[in-house]
Amino acid sequence: MPRRDATNPTMTTNQTLQRFLTTPLTIRDREVRGRLFMAPMAKLGNTAFRQIVTAFGGYGLLFSEMCWAASVPCGNGHDQGGFTWRPEEDLSALVCQIFGNHPETMAWAAQRIAREGFFGVDLNFGCAVARICKKGYGAALLKEPGQAAAIIKAIRNAVSMPVFVKFRTGWDDDPEIAVDSARRFEDAGADALTFHPRVAPDRRTRPPRWEYIARVKEAVRIPVIGNGDVFDRHDCEKMIAQTGCDGVALGRLALARPWVFAEWTSDFQPSEDIYLKSALALTEHLEACYGPHTGKRRFHRYAAYFTANFRYGHFLYGRLCRVSDLAGVRAVLREHLTEDPDVLPRPNMHRFR
Ligand SMILES: Cc1cc2nc3c(=O)[nH]c(=O)nc-3n(C[C@H](O)[C@H](O)[C@H](O)COP(=O)(O)O)c2cc1C
Fold first, then answer.
1. pTM of the predicted model, to two decimals?
2. Measured between alpha carbons, how far is 229 from 322 in angstroms, rounded to an integer?
3. Any atom of ligand 1 within 6 Å of the Cβ of 44
4. Low-confidence ranges of the chain (pLDDT < 70)
5. Is there an atom of ligand 1 within 6 Å of 250 CB?
6. Are 216 and 186 within 8 A, CB to CB?
7. Residue 294: CA atoms inside 13 Å, Cβ hemisphere, count?
């Protein structure tokens, strides 16, 4: 029996969620067709993976891999870095994420991103990886509120497209810090915030504090996109109901099930062979974009999340890691996934963080 929506008993909860996720959202002066987004993911939200997500559709915006701001103005758009897209890719639904800490450099990068026709630019104030933070980039900027605001202001003065900021709670587990950061970002000129309510040193081990998203949402007038541990429809409904967020960004679930955007926003029903077909298609796209060697390395990263779909995913993951080329990857995929792959109702993301 489909669950009924208590506030509107003529609708199922699936229909209520679909209606919310397909309601357009205005960011600055631009309309986004829906409220379900793909979060930025380094080495994984690449153009090959986006080709898979785009074929299914259903998302509002996709966020790119993070790109080093200093390299963006001279990037050619088709080499192997993060600032890469396919000639036919619809950049008007893509937001380019950049990292760095020098306001002018970040502003030059944003100008280039605007010239290419992206929907907007996203500032990475959330990456907590030591080698990024040591240089004063990513979440390190949450310790430097003046510098973070200077970056946003420089970009705001340089471009008219939407400016997003993606951030975490901060370095201490205190919602006031997140609220304070959010207000500063809005005052400096940000048009939307993606908030992942974890402290910076936490690499997704403890649950995110969704109640902090509600606090941030109450504190600012610009749209707030909630993020963190949405692994099925029920999580998504709960995050929206508990926080009042304007949209939801999916990270690891999008990797595991790239059709999730279509599934939650339309009548799309995944077929039984969707796991095999989309994994095989990704091997082809990765090979076309990156060549066989880097393509295989990228697939291995992806496999960690993809195999979280299956009851015996760790076994499949081990086999995929042991093969030496993409032909081997395809053979293992066909062998394991052709007949009843024993799909879990909800991917086991706790195996891979
Ligand atoms: C493999 C991987 C790469 C990521 N790279 C980035 C990144 O480049 N920029 C960023 O802001 N966040 C990055 N994140 C964080 C995600 O955008 C997201 O905040 C986090 O995974 C929590 O969302 P989820 O629970 O839906 O996965 C990355 C996460 C993963 C799993």
1. 0.96
2. 29
3. yes
4. 1, 80, 351-353
5. yes
6. no
7. 13
